[in-house]
Amino acid sequence: MMRVKRVTRVVISDVDKESEQELRSYGRRRGRKPSARQAALLREALPRFAVDPAALPEAAQTWLEIGFGGGEHLLSQARRNPHALIIGCEPYEDGVIKVLSAIESEGLKNIRVHMSDVRDMLRQLAPGSLDRAFILFPDPWPKRKHRKRRLVNSLLLDLLARVLKPNAELRIATDIGDYARTMLEAFRQEPRFVWRAEGPGDWRVQPADWVETKYEAKAAEAGRRRYYFRFLRT
Ligand SMILES: C[S@@+](CC[C@H](N)C(=O)[O-])C[C@H]1O[C@@H](n2cnc3c(N)ncnc32)[C@H](O)[C@@H]1O
């Protein structure tokens, strides 16, 4: 009896693992109807700052931010690091409008935007094309039945491992304890990454050049614990 039960559980979890692979990991793509100015930014500026993943522009460093939300971190890193070309991926139109607006008003030259699912883009990038990647507070999908939508899973690690250079850093933050645990478990099973922890409390410490995001500020205000991880591509 016991044996039958155990076998059944293994089969179900394998099916779950496969179906989790390409589910939609984001919420809405659109908020309010864009104003005329915002619609013009999407129509005219987005194609100018779009990225062709198969032919990236030359840059001393190429970084990627996945799910930049309102763009606080992306814009701040781009201002501080003009040597780095930063690709931002975000399917949410309002966030893309904010970033395009700042690129235009500040004349930022080192941002490229992909207004879609990052997984499409990762498949088209050449191997070893990225020096750094950020995934800051990916959608938490807290309900048990939605957890399979979480972006950080073994499939994403496989896609990222292919495009990150040796020694490239991948930074991830979350405010959801069980997401942090499943992330660490996925990394533990992926030999192409090592967790760059300098001590047992490392996950509590923001990296030195950290930029607080809007989601992170809300999590702090609500008193939720934040987890900060740095992984190195081996
Ligand atoms: C909870 S928000 C956090 C936004 C921002 N990083 C912050 O900390 O304020 C997660 C963001 O990830 C984006 N996202 C989710 N799945 C994605 C995917 N597959 N590719 C790119 N972005 C994604 C969502 O649209 C959303 O804006």
Name the descriptors.
234 residues; alpha/beta; 7 strands; binds S-adenosylmethionine
Biggest sheet: strand arrangement: 3-2-1-4-5-7-6
Q: For this structure, what is the CATH class? A: Alpha Beta
- What is the subunit arrangement here? single chain
CATH superfamily caption? Vaccinia Virus protein VP39
Helix content: 25-40%
CATH fold group? Rossmann fold
Name the hetero compounds present: S-adenosylmethionine
Tell me the number of structural domains. 1
**What's the mean pLDDT score?**
92
Q: Report how far apart the termini are.
A: 44 Å
Catalytic activity: guanosine(46) in tRNA + S-adenosyl-L-methionine = N(7)-methylguanosine(46) in tRNA + S-adenosyl-L-homocysteine
GO molecular function: tRNA (guanine(46)-N7)-methyltransferase activity
Binding site for substrate: 143, 175, 213-216
Pathway: tRNA modification; N(7)-methylguanine-tRNA biosynthesis
